[in-house]
Here is the input.
Amino acid sequence: MQLMTTAPNKKSLALTRLALATFSVALLFCVPLAAQQTGPLPPPPSYSAPTPLPQPGSGNGPVLKTAPHQTMTESPLSTDPPKIPADQIIQKFAARELEFKKERDNYTYTQTVVVQTIDDYSGQADGEYRLVTDVVFTPDGKRTEHDTFAPTPTLTRIGLDEQDKEDLEKVQPFVLTTDELPKYDVKYVGQQQLDEVNAYVFDVAPKKIEKNQRYFQGRIWVEQNDMGIVKTDGKAVPDIKKRNSEHLYPRFETFRENIEGHYWFPTYTHADDTLNFSTGGIHLRMTVRYENYKRFGSTIKIGKPIEVPKEKP
Here is the structure.
């Protein structure tokens, strides 16, 4: 079967530019998923110290503090019980994540997405999707997105859809807040040091899969003092099969850095995985960089200028 061999038209290119990061391949036949799956999902893949990842770009944003991905040194995982009950830790970091989610909504930043398919013989990219987006505020304070660089995609073996954009916004920079906590089974697995960061480690999986909902399944590292997530390693679930298409999702790692105060902001996501479609595997690499975080000044007002009287001597 030939997959995505026709040249894209203007309409398909416009749709492609709106999408950002799961991967679909058209199939001749497949069995649709049930509307809902219940019960725990299979356990996440086994974890080991990952290969050092490329360094993020410097950009023009604020100077960032030491973060786990800069050296990628990990201590052995300790399974010793924490000093306080694990359930209390979970409640504390979920409350902290809720605070962080609200805080991040006050920031502008630049997001760069690069998705490549890799030829297994040469090890080189044979197709690419690239998009640079500024997340900004309008003069009346509304948050909006503005694409600043979107070259014509050269991907020929996979396609991207709107589901990819949702995963990019909600799953890959995973935030586990108090209101999201009831949807997940969270299991304490130990403690580990990532560079200079001491972290609690938890395995996370959705309790059940609801129709049209996206979830994270994998492992998270929570900084022990600030109680914020500093790293996630896992994938978006569920994989989706429809009548004429198959949507598979790569395993990824997302790293956060201490941008301001005690909040840890996502700055780098990386995936290097083979998606095993029914027609064969496709080697994929994906990088997402979140840079130039700047807090939007809520006191700024735009209107007619007012002359301020000069003070008398």
About this structure: The chain has one domain: 64-295. The helical segments are 10-18, 86-104, 162-170.
